[in-house]
Write a structure and sequence with these properties.
With 179 residues, this protein is of the alpha+beta class. It is 28% helix and 35% strand. The protein is built from 4 helices and 10 strands, in the order αββαβββαββββαβ. The chain is globular and about 40 Å long. It holds the Pfam family DUF5648.
Length: 179
């Protein structure tokens, strides 16, 4: 009995040490993370996100207003990160973001297209590791808008007062100020 208990204790310790080593070795370098800007077009009821300041300078004169930085993302593949794709449906005037290749393909079959390029808009963590925080995805059926936020208070307010429903955690990004 003692040997079984000792084995279980040692196995648990080995798993804990192994998990912590995996987490440390699969983190991207926070110094490589860049701001993930959020803009909103009130007339079209459309949220739009990008890590590219030049894109903000292009899109904001078209009616988008910069709302701030949602968090930090990577613009190149980093350890432990996965592609975060941006798709757009012109009939719905809706931008949609996903880490799921299956969801990306399904969206493309329903009228969404990538933004003229087949590369992801950024790279984010698929699980909560490396000090990352959830990027919540919400959806407004009346506004046909996908909305993403890292703020729990903003998420709750959008559900209670903005007509949005919880969809999922889209992925995990680094908080502002972590670099």
């Amino acid at each position: 009995m003692k040997s079984v208990a000792r084995f279980a204790l040692l196995s648990g310790y080995a798993a804990l040490v192994s998990a912590s080593n995996v987490t440390q070795s699969t983190c991207g370098n926070p110094a490589d993370a860049v701001p993930f800007y959020r803009s909103y077009h009130s007339a079209n009821v459309d949220h739009w996100y990008t890590p590219d300041v030049a894109q903000i300078n292009t899109y904001n004169p078209q009616g988008f207003a910069l709302q701030g930085v949602a968090g930090l993302v990577f613009i190149t593949q980093e350890p432990g990160t996965t592609p975060f794709y941006r798709l757009y449906n012109s009939a719905l005037t809706d931008n949609f973001y996903t880490i799921s290749l299956a969801e990306k393909v399904a969206a493309e079959q329903n009228g969404y297209i990538t933004d003229g390029v087949s590369v992801p808009v950024s790279y984010i963590y698929p699980t909560q590791v490396c000090g990352s925080i959830p990027l919540f995805r919400l959806y407004s059926a009346s506004g046909q808008d996908n909305f993403y936020t890292t703020s729990e208070a903003e998420r709750i307010n959008a559900i209670a007062n903005g007509g949005y429903a919880d969809v999922e955690i889209a992925g995990y990004i680094l908080p502002v100020g972590c670099t």
